[in-house]
Write a structure and sequence with these properties.
By secondary structure, the protein is mostly beta strands. It has one domain: Sandwich (Immunoglobulin-like). The protein contains 2 helices and 8 strands; from the N terminus they run E-H-E-E-E-E-H-E-E-E.
């Protein structure tokens, strides 16, 4: 499933809280996708972005907020789709946090 994070500043359009209209005007920050979801441990992470930042920080976080895995990469490494191996033995709900251009995007991942 691909989730688009669209930020605009025009009347009647979505705007991220805490941003001004001039900051947010017609800016697509990122599209983040996780598949398959639910998973048995491995999934593909897709990040498409038009942000100027070249570095992406990716964290896998459990429901208690503990960081299970951290990766730092260039956005070129994650353009398209990249396999993420979750070395997790406990089924449950986890979150993939993507930090890009000082914005954080989260996707829920269910591990069976």
């Amino acid at each position: 499933m691909l989730c688009a994070f669209l930020v605009t500043g025009n009347a009647g359009k979505a705007q991220v809280p805490g941003t001004s209209s001039s900051e947010a005007m017609h800016e697509v920050l990122a599209e983040v996708g996780v598949a398959p979801n639910p998973t048995h441990g491995d999934f593909h992470l897709k990040i498409s972005t038009f942000a100027e930042s070249r570095e992406i920080q990716i964290e896998i976080v459990n429901l208690l907020g503990s960081v299970i895995q951290t990766r730092i990469a260039t956005k070129e490494e994650y353009e398209g789709s990249r396999l993420i191996a979750l070395n997790i033995s406990s089924p449950g709900i986890y979150f993939v946090r993507v930090n890009l251009a000082n914005k954080v995007f989260s996707k829920k991942v269910v591990v069976n």
